[in-house]
Write a structure and sequence with these properties.
Elements lengths: L8 E5 L3 H9 L8 E5 L4 E8 L2 E8 L5 H9 L4
Parallel strand pairs: 1-4
Antiparallel strand pairs: 2-3, 3-4
Length: about 80
């Protein structure tokens, strides 16, 4: 068994990146977010450093991308 000592990042998937940013920036200690366009992956992301962990919101820009397919099958969330 391995002891987990740190977490590099946690991803959350949402359809609307801006709405998700608004939602999470209302939580004290989260934000500001840095938005990135990643067309080769078919996503837009917003990330904020929370403690030593990156909090990442992923929003698919293409339904055929892996995140787009995941969102379609599982819905929004962690």
């Amino acid at each position: 068994m391995t002891d987990i000592r740190s977490i590099h990042h946690v991803n959350f998937i949402f359809r609307d990146l801006e709405k998700a940013i608004e939602r999470f920036e209302s939580v004290p200690g989260i934000g500001p977010f840095r938005i990135e366009e990643l067309p080769e992956r078919g996503v837009r992301t917003a990330r904020a450093l929370v403690g030593g962990t990156w909090f990442v919101i992923v929003s698919p820009t293409r339904a055929d991308s892996a995140p787009g397919q995941y969102l379609e099958e599982h819905g929004e969330g962690f």
